[in-house]
Amino acid sequence: MDNQLPAYLRWVIRRFSFLAVPNLALLVCGLTLLAFIGQHVLHAPMDRFMFDPDLVLQGDWWRVFAYPVPEGMSNPLWLIFYLLYVYYVMNALEQHWGPGPLTLFTFLSYVSAMGAAFVAHRPISIWFYVVQNVSLAFGTLFPNLELLLFFVLPVKAKWLAALAGVLLGWQFIVGGLLTKIFLLIVLAPYFMFFGPSLYRTVKLRWQVRNNRKRHDTDQWR
Description:
Layout: H1 7-15, H2 24-40, H3 53-57, H4 76-97, H5 99-120, H6 126-141, E1 146-149, E2 153-156, H7 157-174, H8 177-186, H9 188-219
Antiparallel strand pairs: 1-2
Helix pairs in contact: 2-4, 4-5, 4-6, 5-6, 5-8, 5-9, 6-7
């Protein structure tokens, strides 16, 4: 377990360690593949598993078990890229954190996306926001690790995370109050896991910057 995690999260993880799911990346990718086959090969009505809070309240309770298939993805080649990315990122997090923290992070991301959908009163692709949280966590923990995008273009993880952060930040800035609340709820798991360490990092850099300014000012006196 990562000792940099907040103390209360470490307590929760130890308390509920028996619920940890090992090889979670493989499970998620397997369910995604099954959902894709069901939707595009067997032509099963997979849209019935699209999370819609209004329909859930009307009795479609099974929608809380949303399949992790990317919305609108119908090309098998794009699916392969997506599965490889999800597996690599989630597996790296499990190796760094362990099964318990990754299971908790994924579960909280899932639940927070559901909660945000109820607040916004609109259907959403839950796993889209789960993967966004996972991507931000990966970019935060392994900023200089290079990924081969489409097996060709080398991109550092921090730039992928920064791109996701910029897009979310832009939505937050231009969106209305409901959009802002929605995004804050969706990203709550990321801030729960990384908020304290990010605060300490920003505070330390601010102190270093101020110390340098004072040192430069003293030199010119």
